[in-house]
């Protein structure tokens, strides 16, 4: 009798669990690899670079698949990248395309890009004939361009914010053990990952708060109409917050809170700095390993700017080969590999070979029209930072080619750079680019 009661209670318990599980199961999820109890998708994701594994999984399940991975989102997903499709996202998207990253605004940042690139070139020039770590220099160039565009150079809180944002980038890079064991939430606590991220985020938030207040004081002191032409991104967002209006598009429905502004600035940093830096690093690495490409790119830039002695943006559109090099880098090393599928057009010969020529006289561009080449995504959520990125990459790359010849340090002359990938917020070359600059056209002194 006791056994019968026990069995009935047990069956009832199991049925209740199944019912609850069914109820809580989302209605229709895309296909995906089966999650094992406890270890979730760990068995699929261990052993190689996550984007390579995901690419293999995509071949089996299609480009839309379901994986359960833990993540930590800031500002309640009120940024653009993480906010779901709806009115709020539409409003932010408008702010982004019509104001923050409009062609007018990008053009206004021209002097920032030229100045930062020239600073890097001068610093390299002061180390002629010595081995320089180009990865470090490129990284700090990319962060400086974004910081200057976002809140200007003069902020007292710049170092504080940069240190926090770099720690966030490090912590968010790669799949942590927490991602690997989605079923065991307690692991998040054990690894302390979430806690570390929250602490780092708090530091960044405090610095941003101060940056916002600093801008408010400066705006209150400036005379109306005076200096609007020099607005940085925080200025633009504060203006929109104050007026409740977006230029060209008029009023918008929900007011912009300070947290919304901070979330957008966070997006600009996470989208704009590391990915541009890695693209520049891959461009240099691939050209060093393919000397015929390097020579052709150098010949082009040195011919087009022969009479100038320096590179500015005025003739950058004439550098067709350099643009093909950048396209090929995005093709082989997409900076956001987890967000875009990888599939080569069937007619491409040796798609894994670094061969920029395939993009010369080709219609393929970055705007998401050709589904086999979408490094910035496609459709309504296509990356709004394409022009910002391209303009930030072209001048520094052209300068590196124009002013210097490059060689590998002594003892490595016969070798190739190690172009193994390492996984982070963006996918970098595993080894730092340590190269010796040999002056060709000396940069003008300050
Ligand atoms: C190498 C540089 C970059 C690459 C490869 C890249 C790539 C991408 C990709 C693949 C997406 C997702 C698109 C989709 O879901 O279809 C995206 C979204 C986004 N990117 Fe970028 N991006 C880069 C630079 C930037 C820059 C410089 C900014 C800002 C200054 C930026 C801001 C954003 C934002 C705000 C979104 C979200 C858009 C939305 O959801 O509506 N990105 N990016």
From TrEMBL:
Record-linked InterPro entries: Cyt_P450, Cyt_P450_CS, Cyt_P450_E_grp-I, Cyt_P450_sf
Keyword set includes Methyltransferase: no
Binding of heme, residues: 383
Gene3D superfamilies: Cytochrome P450
Domain of life the protein comes from: Eukaryota
UniProt KW keywords: Heme, Iron, Metal-binding, Monooxygenase, Oxidoreductase
Pfam families to which the protein is assigned, alphabetical: p450 (PF00067)
Record-linked PROSITE patterns: CYTOCHROME_P450
Cofactor dependency: heme
Keyword hit for Metal-binding: yes
Similarity comment: Belongs to the cytochrome P450 family.
Name the record gives this protein: Uncharacterized protein
Source species: Coffea canephora
Classification of source organism: Eukaryota, Viridiplantae, Streptophyta, Embryophyta, Tracheophyta
């Amino acid at each position: 009798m006791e056994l019968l009661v026990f069995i009935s209670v047990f069956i009832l318990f199991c049925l209740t669990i199944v019912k609850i599980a069914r109820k809580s199961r989302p209605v229709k999820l895309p296909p995906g690899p089966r999650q094992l109890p406890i270890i979730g998708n760990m068995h699929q994701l261990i052993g190689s670079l996550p984007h390579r594994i995901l690419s293999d999984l995509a071949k089996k399940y299609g480009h839309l698949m379901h994986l359960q991975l833990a993540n930590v989102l800031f500002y309640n997903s009120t940024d653009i990248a993480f906010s779901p499709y709806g009115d709020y996202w539409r409003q932010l998207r408008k702010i982004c395309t019509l104001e923050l990253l409009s062609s007018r605004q990008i053009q206004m940042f021209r002097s920032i890009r030229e100045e930062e690139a020239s600073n890097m070139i001068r610093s390299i020039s002061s180390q002629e004939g010595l081995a320089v770590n180009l990865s470090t220099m490129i990284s700090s160039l990319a962060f400086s361009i974004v910081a200057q565009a976002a809140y200007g150079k003069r902020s007292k809180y710049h170092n504080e914010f940069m240190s926090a944002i770099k720690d966030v980038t490090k912590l968010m890079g790669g799949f942590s053990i927490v991602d690997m064991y989605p079923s065991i939430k307690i692991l998040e606590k054990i690894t302390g990952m979430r806690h570390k991220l929250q602490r780092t985020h708090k530091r960044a938030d405090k610095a941003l708060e101060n940056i916002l207040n600093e801008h408010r004081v400066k705006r209150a002191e400036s005379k109306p109409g005076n200096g609007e032409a020099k607005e940085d991104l925080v200025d633009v967002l504060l203006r929109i917050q104050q007026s409740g209006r977006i230029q060209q598009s008029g009023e918008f429905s929900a007011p912009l809170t300070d947290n919304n502004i901070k979330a957008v600035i966070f997006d600009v940093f996470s989208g704009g700095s590391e990915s541009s830096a890695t693209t520049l690093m891959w461009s240099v690495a691939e050209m060093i390993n393919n000397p015929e490409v390097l020579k052709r790119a150098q010949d082009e830039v040195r011919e087009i700017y022969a009479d100038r002695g320096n590179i500015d943006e005025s003739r950058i559109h004439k550098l067709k080969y350099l643009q093909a090099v950048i396209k090929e880098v995005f093709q082989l090393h997409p900076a956001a590999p987890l967000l875009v599928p990888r599939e080569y057009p069937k007619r491409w010969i040796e798609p894994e070979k670094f061969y920029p020529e395939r993009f010369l006289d080709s219609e393929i561009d970055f705007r998401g029209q050709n589904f086999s080449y979408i490094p910035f995504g496609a459709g309504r959520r296509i990356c709004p930072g394409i022009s910002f990125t391209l303009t930030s990459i072209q001048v520094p790359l052209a300068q590196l080619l124009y002013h210097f010849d490059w060689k590998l340090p002594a003892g490595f002359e016969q070798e190739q750079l190690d172009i193994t990938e390492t996984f982070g917020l963006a996918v970098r070359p595993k080894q730092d680019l340590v190269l010796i600059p040999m002056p060709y056209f000396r940069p003008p002194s300050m």
